[in-house]
Specification:
- By secondary structure, the chain is α+β, with helices and mostly antiparallel strands.
- Helices cover 46% and strands 15% of the residues.
- The chain is built from 25 helices and 15 strands.
- A four-stranded antiparallel sheet has the order 12-3-14-13. Strands 9-4-11-10 form a four-stranded antiparallel sheet. Strands 6-5-8-7 form a four-stranded antiparallel sheet.
């Protein structure tokens, strides 16, 4: 329950006390199968776990805190209705029960922690340290206050977290990932295959005549559901963005010129230099090398004598700010093209540098960036005023105004989309233009209904988009005449697919009888070869669907699979399989090992908590839960 301000979230226990939507603690805890609604509860009790009671106010605070946390995470308020639709009520009850069970077990085991240990944990938390790395009490108090904690409550929760961690470490502290598991993952991820293939397409299917009216009618009748008109919604949306509001803000030349002088570096291209560098552990060696260069020796010769390759001394063409050591940066950017520096005392030794190329920086004039500067200033001013205008819009909507009425009142533009389906397309099948993609207004509209007063969606630039559903056209069956061209196209594709499938099956039979792919290639086709294929990495000639089949087929066995489209077919033979070597010390395998360890730990702890809950006994007062979540819990 650290509310996103603790690094412990990387561990299972941290997730158990931070994540709003979490699964592994309640995987095997079937709360809603333990007797439905229980009797004998006091009006103030939500649940009992062993000898511990969870009161209504305790759960209310827990539930509200978590809902606020999730709202902050997604950038918009989560309503109780949305929480129930997502099943958050069930998850939070399960999570709180699991945490309480661990707390009860800690008491039974008489586990404890001193105040000094808690204080050490808090003062060592990097979230509470200042720029000098010291614990900052003012920062600590501000952060826990923003997260809804008092100091005593935060300290108490840290104590509970640490005690739960003691139990978790005792259960999972010494598990190791079996080599067999690593080998299996390595084999799956890194096995490579090579195939020879023939790619069959519409050209190989031959001419497909048009269907007769009877054939088309029968085809349509058997597949009417495929040609149904989707549900369409009429949606009105009202955007309030800094970009739009900035158009009405006038920025003076004086303000723009002042901004230009203060931010010149943001508009120009800094000077870049190609720099070579040799680091000498001893200053005397650097001095001797500089003297040799002064007498005619080449910089590259000095590097060669010291056993350095060209790549060892080449820093590339870089800006001054890209050089970590300020002393070296100053010296390198003071040299003329081709010059070598005197010995420079750097952070990691004494250094000689040579500049081999200079790319001058470019600084645009004020006039060249005037429009950009004024737009930037205007958008900044608009962002600062958006909050005030948002409140006015919300007040106007609360008074019963439609979005069109609100838009006219505040000089904004509301847009009406007369018909859009869930995929963002109109009745003509084409994407509806000018629909906001981020946030997705269409998805939000299809999650709402006519007459619902929806919360504004937050735009990426800090603005808002209000929306309302003005009409719904339900999905319905279409007549053949309405979709005749679509039906004919699908009928043709099906006919091509049938022909290609039969052709591929005939080829497979001949390949098994001893023929080669080359001998079976139709006119105009040649046998292709795809090397070093890997799972999850489709290439142009081998789409993902075909790749799955290839990795389920034995070496040398001919096989066929549908291509990227229904009208494409591959006939292939695997000619080579390369088994990867296992290197447990490689970064990739270490990452896999860590992931497996977390998974094993999650499973073990989930089983432990389930048994713990069974031993302690768990009772849920569903009526009390419903009082808090505002309705019937999701089933």
């Amino acid at each position: 329950m650290l509310r996103g301000i603790h690094k412990a979230s990387a561990s299972w226990l941290g997730k158990a006390v931070m994540a709003v939507i979490m699964g592994f603690l309640v995987i095997s805890f079937a709360i809603w199968g333990i007797g439905d609604i229980f009797r004998g509860f006091g009006l103030s009790t939500v649940a009992t776990i062993g000898s511990t009671e969870i009161g209504i106010e305790q759960f209310r605070q827990y539930y509200n805190d978590r809902l606020q946390q999730l709202s902050r995470r997604v950038g918009r308020p989560i309503t109780p209705d949305q929480a129930r639709a997502l099943g958050i009520d069930r998850q939070l009850v399960g999570q709180l029960v699991a945490e309480t069970a661990l707390d009860e077990q800690a008491r039974r085991l008489k586990l404890g922690l001193s105040d000094a240990e808690i204080a050490t944990r808090i003062t060592n938390d990097p979230n509470f340290k200042n720029v000098t790395g010291q614990f900052d009490r003012a920062r600590f108090e501000q952060m826990i206050r923003q997260a809804g904690f008092t100091e005593s409550r935060y300290v108490n929760e840290q104590r509970q977290v640490m005690l739960r961690k003691q139990i978790a470490d005792a259960i999972t502290g010494d598990i190791k990932v079996p080599t067999t598991a690593l080998q299996a993952v390595n084999q799956y991820q890194n096995e490579k295959r090579t195939v020879d293939y023939l790619a069959l397409g519409p050209a190989q299917a031959g001419a497909v005549p048009k269907p007769t009216p009877e054939e088309l009618s029968k085809y349509f009748d058997e597949r009417k559901v495929l040609f149904r008109a989707p549900e369409y919604r009429k949606v009105v949306f009202l955007p309030l963005t800094a970009t739009d509001q900035a158009k009405w803000i006038t920025v003076s030349d004086d303000d723009a010129k002042k901004y230009y002088e203060q931010h010149k570096g943001d508009f120009g291209t800094p000077e870049r230099r190609h720099i070579l560098q040799i680091v000498f552990p001893k200053a005397d060696d650097a001095t001797a090398a500089a003297e040799r260069i002064a007498k005619g020796a080449k910089f590259a010769d000095i590097a060669k004598d010291r056993g350095l390759k060209e790549t060892d001394i080449d820093l590339g063409t870089i800006t001054k700010s890209a050089i970590i050591d300020p002393a070296i940066a100053d010296a390198a950017f003071a040299l003329k093209d081709g010059a070598v520096s005197t010995p420079i005392k750097g952070q990691f030794g004494t250094v000689l540098v040579q500049v081999t190329k200079i790319e001058p920086g470019k600084q645009p004039s004020y006039k060249e960036v005037e429009a950009q500067i004024k737009r930037t200033i205007a958008e900044g001013i608009a962002k600062s005023k958006i909050g005030e205008l948002r409140d006015k819009i919300e007040d106007d909507r609360a008074a019963g105004s439609t979005l069109d009425e609100t838009a006219k009142k505040f000089g904004l533009t509301a847009t009406t989309i007369n018909a859009v389906d869930r995929s963002g397309r109109g009745p003509d099948g084409a994407p509806v233009p000018n629909l906001p993609k981020n946030p997705d207004v269409v998805s939000a509209a299809f999650a709402s209904d006519i007459g619902v007063d929806n919360d504004a969606l937050q735009a990426p630039d800090g603005g808002y988009i209000w929306y309302e559903v003005a009409g719904i056209t339900p999905s319905h069956e279409r007549k053949l005449d309405e979709v005749k061209s679509q039906v004919e196209a699908r009928w043709r594709d099906d006919e091509i697919a049938k022909r290609l499938s039969k052709m591929a099956d005939d080829m497979i039979g001949k390949l098994k009888a001893g023929s080669t792919l080359a001998s079976l290639a139709p006119d105009g086709l040649t046998v292709g070869k795809a090397k070093d294929l890997q799972r999850g990495h489709p290439v142009d000639q081998i789409p993902a669907r075909a790749l799955d089949t290839i990795f389920r087929t034995a070496k040398g066995a001919p096989a066929t699979t549908e291509g990227d489209k229904q009208t494409e077919r591959l006939v292939f033979v695997i000619t080579d399989i390369t088994d990867p070597k296992l290197d447990p010390a490689s970064p990739a395998m270490k990452s896999v090992s860590d992931t497996l360890l977390r998974s094993f730990a999650d499973d073990m702890l989930g089983e432990y908590v389930t048994r713990l809950e069974s031993d302690l006994g768990v009772n849920i007062n569903q009526q009390a839960v419903n009082q808090i979540i505002g309705g019937t819990a999701s089933q």
